Amino acid sequence: MSAVPSLLAVARAQARRDLRLVWRRRGDAAQPMLFAVMVVALFPLALGADPQQLARIAPGVLWVAVLLAGLLALDSLYRGDLEDGSLEQMLLAPVPLAWLIAVRVAVHWVTTALPLVLLTPVLAELLYLPGELLPVLLVSLLLGTPLLSLLGSVVAALTVGIRRSGMLLALLALPLFLPVLVFGAGSVMAAAQGLPWAGALLLMAAGLVLAIVLAPLVAAAAIRIALT
């Protein structure tokens, strides 16, 4: 009788597989980051090089760029596994499907959102964001981008069985993403105005903890429904 693999062993195997697939399609994986860079670079060209004006809109522009880049990468979360039959194998695996989805979402965040967070100081310089606001912006992104990935995983699971679901996916995900955008950009704007800003980050942290627990379970249930 074969032993059931441990959750950590399965997570390592799943992460290695997903990272190899990302490396093989590294051109597709780089698209969200390039998209965000283009969005941010267009604002100084459109509005002019006034540092005060750009600094005033910088938190919102950076957050919108990250959000749109996340939407761009969302359709690929399960699409490849559905096409090659791996999603059905995940359903038959001797470990909870929610655990595999949690690993998948973690790899998706590391390969799509984390590079954007690391690039944020450079993009902030393009928009003349004051240096004292950069730590608040980075913390908001480190809390908000995993939350976006977890919420997006649920929406992507709901539409996984629909062909050409890109527009529907964006329409369903956007209402869930908007509160994260409001609290994320709002915390930086509040810090810029000398107002209390920690409350917004605490709310985002609470939402992230809740999403870590619930989002993989909901996404697993949605995938089971879509594939049966």
Question: Would you write up a description of this structure?
Answer:
The protein is mostly helical and 228 residues long. Helices cover 82% and strands 0% of the residues. The protein has 10 helices and no strands. It has helices spanning 7-24, 26-29, 31-47, 51-74, 79-84, 86-92, 97-126, 134-158, 166-192, 198-227. The longest helix is centred in the middle third of the chain and has 30 residues, at 97-126. It is elongated. The mean pLDDT is 86.
Main sheet: strands, sense, barrel: none
Rg, rounded, reads: 19 Å
User: What is the overall number of helices?
Assistant: 10
Low-confidence stretches: none
First CA to last CA: what distance? 29 Å
Helices and strands, in order, run as HHHHHHHHHH
The chain-level mean pLDDT equals 86
Range of strand content: under 5%
Percent helix range: over 70%
Q: Determine the oligomeric state from the structure.
A: single chain
Main structural class: mainly alpha
User: What general outline do the C-alpha atoms trace?
Assistant: elongated
How many beta-strand segments?
A: 0
Structure characteristics:
single chain, 10 helices, 82% helix, mainly alpha, 228 residues
Question: Secondary-structure map with pairings?
Answer:
Layout: H1 7-24, H2 26-29, H3 31-47, H4 51-74, H5 79-84, H6 86-92, H7 97-126, H8 134-158, H9 166-192, H10 198-227
Report a brief summary of the structure.
The chain is an all-alpha fold.
